[in-house]
Design goal:
Layout lengths: L7 H17 L11 H6 L5 E5 L7 H4 L7 E5 L7 H12 L5 E7 L3 H8 L11 H13 L9 H20 L1 H9 L3 E7 L6 E3 L4
Parallel strand pairs: 1-2, 1-3, 3-4
Antiparallel strand pairs: 4-5
Helix pairs in contact: 5-6, 6-7, 7-8
The protein binds zinc ion.
């Protein structure tokens, strides 16, 4: 647990190396019974993540990391809700995690719904409009569904959008990022290949 990479750059490098192992089927991580004593005594996750609730998205598997390495927050559409942001603050302020990853994925149902119902989200059942509206407003309100790749573009937009939402929603995290000790990145997992594509910072 004490051998985690320290800098956000080193953490990101390990995540991408783990994803490469996942893509080609050479995973190394395991969770043997012998590791549980150390896990029970505390945690020092190297990265915090917002993942979609989608059953096909599992960061520990996709980045080939054992239990205790990733602090994972999940919600449909990987949206930084206030509770998710508070959870990330815990990772940054208490656990000294240095990297936050906003993790979108291909074929995301939440983003698809935001595209399909961009004009009538109230037609969605239950509490879904409140969730989907958070994707519609910045990413699909003006989208043209006839344009090829529009869903992938909206998925990337939504993941990128998460960075700004975290910075705006948390003075604590924004200060840590501005001080240089913490970095937030966004990316998209391609379900077919397994590859996690890192989006650029801009
Ligand atoms: Zn999804």
């Amino acid at each position: 647990m004490n051998d985690r990479p320290n800098s956000s750059e080193a953490v990101l490098e390990e995540l991408m190396a783990g994803n490469a192992r996942y893509v080609d089927g050479s995973m190394q991580s395991s969770n043997p019974p012998a590791a549980r004593d150390a896990l029970a005594s505390g945690q020092a996750p190297m990265a915090a993540m917002i993942r979609c609730a989608d059953s096909r998205v599992a960061p520990e598997i996709v980045f080939d990391q054992p239990l205790g390495s990733l602090f994972v927050c999940g919600v449909a559409g990987n949206i930084p809700t206030p509770e998710i942001i508070a959870s990330l603050e815990y990772a940054i302020a208490v656990l000294d995690t240095t990297l936050i990853v906003v993790m979108g994925h291909s074929s995301c149902g939440a983003v698809s719904a935001a595209l399909e119902h961009r004009g009538d989200s109230n037609a969605l059942p239950g509490g879904l409009p409140a969730l989907v509206d958070q994707i519609i407003d910045p990413c699909t309100a003006d989208a043209d569904p006839s344009v090829p790749g529009v869903l992938d573009a909206a998925i990337a937009c939504n993941a990128r959008q998460g960075i700004g939402a975290i910075m705006e929603g948390s003075d604590l995290i924004a200060a840590a990022v501005e001080a240089g000790g913490v970095r937030i990145v966004a990316g998209v997992q391609d379900l077919a290949s397994g590859h996690f594509h890192l989006l650029s910072d801009d």
